[in-house]
Structure formats: structure tokens, C-alpha cells
Amino acid sequence: MRTAAFKDHFSVAAHEYHRHRPGYPPELFDFLAGAAPGRALAWDCATGTGQAAVALAEHFERVVATDASAAQVSHAVTHPRVSYAVATAEQSGLADRSVDLVTVAQAMHWLDLDRFFAELGRVARPGAVFAAWTYSLADGDPAIDPIVRGFYEEMGPWWPPERVHVEEGYRRLEFPLASIDAPRFEIRARWPLDRLLGYFSTWSAVNRCRRESGSDPLAALRARLAAAWGDPDQSRPVRWPLHLRVGRVT
Asked: I need a surface site. Which of 21, 71, 76, 93 has the fewest CB within 10 A?
């Protein structure tokens, strides 16, 4: 299944993305580094603001992190072993057979998969590992979860069609590699109210709604959440199960 050419849904929210998107569990990167054939070079494709790239740098000598959005790259987290570049997933600029691990975090549904997997085959050394993951709707607090689900459904008209792949956990996306079984991972956090609202401000549907309707859907959501939250500075649990596809390049 192919996806469309690059659509920039996130440059408008690049600063919020950097501040409010959750980080990934360290155990995920322990697992991926252990599966890779070496630790010389990892490529974090569609890096956004570098959450995964910086975590990979704890395991690899060098990480190249690319994104087609210059705005996202301009807000990326710096690290001495991470080199950022504005480049598409389909034309990375990396050398042939140079990469031990390739990752795509929460972005595989945006790629032109035929061309991306051709590029992966070019840059990966034999036995290299590819991993893509996504997470769907946040949950973890019975007092808040129904409000979040209701808001997600309200945003339905504003989500791009590619969102269906996130809802399906990437199960139906093309994956022409020898699969590797992976443990289950999840993101866990405890956030105050404003931190959760900041996360919602990074949703592509929220930003499209703001742009096309001229109103901010988070204003009404804030009121609904505040009524159930209590003290807005109180931290409540938030959880995102990760849906992971891992394979080896042969």
C-alpha cells in the first residue's frame, strides 16, 4: 500500500511538538540496539524534533536524523552524536550499505512506502534492522479517558485519511522484510492538565481545525477536562501502548 507524497501537517506546531510530545521508553531502544548487527550508525527517518534520535544516541556511535520539515528540524533536540538534516525518507543522502538500524517513529503512515523501502534497501548493511512504531489514543485515567475519546471522535472530520493506519497499529501497511518478534512496550507519564492540552495541540487534526474553521477546539476541551480534573496542577496518569513493526534487511 502506497501513501501520498510528503504532506507537512506539523510545521505549524513544531515548537509545541518539541515541548509536548511524549518520549519513548528506554527499553525500546535497548531492544532495537541489541537486535542491530552493529552500533556504528543509526538513521532516524522522519525524526520530527528528535525524540527517538536522541535516545538512539545512547546506543550508537552516530545517529543521522532526517525530516522533510525544516521547521521540525529547527526545533530538534541537540546531541553531540546526532546529526540533523532536512531530507525526505525516500532520498536520505546516506551512503550505500552504511546503516545498522533504521527507525521511523509515529510517521510511517506519511511515507511513500515503495520508494522508502527501496531507499532502505540501498542504505542498510546486510542484517540491518528496521523498526517503525506508532501509538494511538492516550488513556490511563478513568475520569479523563471518556472525555479524550469523545474529543478524538469530534476531531474525526479533520484527521487526514492516513490516520486509519495509526488506528490499525500499522498492521496493514506494506512491510516487505523478515519480521522480528518484539516485546510489548508502552509510554507512561504523569501530566498536569496543561501538559496534556499541550500534547493535544500537536495533533494534526487540531491544527487543521484551527486553520480551516478559525476556532480553537481546545478551548471547549479545556473546560470539559477541568471539570473532571480537579486541581489543574495535579498530575494524572497517561498511557500510550506502542504498536511496533520490526524486520531485518537481508
From this structure: 93
